[in-house]
Every structure is written in C-alpha cells, then in structure tokens.
Amino acid sequence: MRNIEDRAGCFFSFCPLAAIGWLHRKIKNSFYLVIGSPVCESFIQNAFGMMLFAKPRFATAVIEEYDLFLGTSPKRILEFAKEIANDYKIDVLFLLETCPSQLLKLDVARWAEIASAELEIPVINVPISGLDASFTEGEDSILSSLVDLCPSDVHRPNLILVGSLAGSVESEFLYEFRNLKHPVSFLPPAAIGELPPISEKTTAVLLHPYLEQTRKKLAARGCNIVSTVFPLGASASRQFFEDVFNALGVSAKGLAEREANIFARNAELHGRIFGKKFFFFPDTQLEIPLARFLSSLGGEIVELSVPKINTKLLSKELEFLDNGIAIIERADFNEQMNKILLTRPDLIIAPLALTTPLLQKGYKVKHSMDFVLLPIQGFSNHRSLVELFTNAMI
After folding, report:
1. Other C-beta atoms within 10 Å of 214: how many?
2. What is the pLDDT of residues 214-232, one digit of tens each?
3. Residues 279 and 361 in one domain
4. Could you say which of 5, 241, 282, 367 is the most buried, measured as most Cβ atoms within 10 Å of its Cβ?
5. Alpha-carbon span 286 to 308, nearest angstrom
6. Would you say residue 199 lies in a domain?
7. For 330-364, b where at least 16 C-beta lie within 10 A, e where not — what string?
8. Greatest CA separation found in the chain?
9. Are 75 and 93 part of one and the same domain?
10. Residue 330 has pLDDT above 90, yes or no
C-alpha cells in the first residue's frame, strides 16, 4: 500500500491564470480575456511583463464597483469583446472567470453566450479559481472547456493526445505514431476549427498529471483513456508509447532498443544524479513523475511533497515509484524547513516564492516552473531533462 501522508498544510503557488502564459499562442487567432479585479490585472502584468511588448493575446477586464452597482458589467464586457475581435481578428475568445468574479456571483457564462451571438464566433466561459488550486490547473480548466466544443461525429477510431506540448515535442510524437491507421490529434489544437471529434471510438492519453477535469469530461463522452506513465525520460517514454500502442491493438517495435541506446550515450551524465539527494516542495503536480525519474537514475528522494494527488491519473506512476518514497500531500512548511536542515539535500525543487530565500541560505535550487515551460517529454528530451537537474547542482 502506497504511503501517502496528508499534513493539512498549505503550498506556495502561482494563480492558475499563469496557464495563459504557455497557452495564449497555442491556438491560432485565439484571445484570453480575464474577468477579474485589480489584483488579477497586477498578476498578469507582473507575471507576463515581457510579453506585453509583443502584442500578447490576453488582457484583463477589471470589474469596478460602479459597474456592480449600476449593473453595467455585461455591457462593458461586450464592448471589450467587440474591440478585441476588431483589433485581433480572432476565431475564439476565452472569458476567464476568476476568484473575484466567482465570489461576486457574476454570470460570466451568460455574458459568454451573449458575446458569442454578437460576434458570431465561439466565446468560451472558463472558470479558473486560485482557491485551493495549483497554477497548472489553469490549463485543465481551459482544456476541459474545449472538450465541450469537440464534435461527436467520429466515423472511425481516433487518438487524441491531451495536454499542451512544445512544437518540437508534438512533431516527435506525431513521428512515433506515423504508422497508425488512426487519425492523431492534439488538444489543444492548432486552430479552433481543428478540434478533434470525440466518441466511444476515441482513445485519449493525458500528457500531464493535472488534467483531472479534462479526464472526467472525456470519460463522460465515452473515451477510452489510456492508463500510463507520463513520458518524462527514456524509460517512461518507452512505457508510454508501449501502453498507447497496446491500447490501440498495435505492436510496438524498437522502443526498448532506443531506450538502451539513450542510457548508453548518457551514462556519464546519469552518474551525476546517482547518490544525490533531492527535495521536492509542492507546486506543479509534476513532482511524482519527476521523483520517479530521478529515483530510476539512482537519486535519493528525501522529500516528495505534492499540492494534491489524483490516484487515477497517477496510478501507473505510483506503480513505478519506489515504495520506500513517502508522498506528502499539503505538507507543513515549518516541518519541511526543519527537514532541509537535517538532510542537507543536494538540490531543492521549489516554487518561485521560495527559490530566492533558499538560494540566499546557500542551497542549490531549481525553479519548479521550468519543468512546465520547457520541452522535457519524449525520447529526444531525455538528456535535456537530466541536465535541468545536473546543471542546477553545479
């Protein structure tokens, strides 16, 4: 039985609006309008400051007190939407419903319906709450809203790869599945008009461990969801492709040989992981796959803390994770700092709020958001993933 401890603590994480940063250019001619407070606006400006000079495809509509008093919020949002549609020539508009708009009981879903009718394009209401959520769950909210728009007219079996990936990783995955007779699609798609069809004939595989809402909606549409590990590292990539091929009734060839070749070429680099101690603060929900990867290379996991754990999404990961590694959900921060003093880890994987303080105390620290933003999936990125850890320990 896997040892999972819930310490009922808190974790330091970005707002889920952070997902806009890596999603706002994934879908061609899309735009993200945040319905929120001055705090939301400040977060967007500070988190994505450099993007503001590149005509970004996101903005914040700040709900003012007089709008609430006069009931003019829907009118103002519609004006914003029309202005965005004219300036950006968009094909789809996402209205992001934040904590303030939810607490104020604003009917953003109704506003989206009105704007969609006026603009004659999809205007999608996306509830994104920062209350008890890790920042990566913003992507889950957006993708789950897209599932509702996916057509159901599936004439033959198809495969959907669910989760945002770098373009280079998408190309690699398409190459791996090049000989399939099934059509292969991505969610999110390159354009809103390319949403994949979904039915009982559809096989879906989730690429990230934080896509629980999306998983539920896919299952409700009758999808066969492949249970597998997340493709971080050569061994997991081999297992990932084998599981997908098996689910489709196709034999996988040459995967074990590629895994062996990668390990042979990177033996010296792997040696820099062997015997080193790693400490995970909770942040991205990628902690368990990353700990499994480091443990497979001989790394010692002295602390594995996660913001939350979904055993359905992580069932295969938990099978491959060393049973001696305890998983701590909602860890107590003071206990963690005491453990760092006792264990003196070689590398700490931490959220942004803790990175600088820990560096000032003399620890080697790796910012956990890098594992979300950088291409680390698949066979071709095995070495890059190892180097994210080894370079941080120099």
Report:
1. 25
2. 999 999 999 999 999 999 9
3. yes
4. 282
5. 10
6. yes
7. bbebeebeebbeeeebbbbbbbbebbeebeeeebe
8. 69
9. yes
10. no
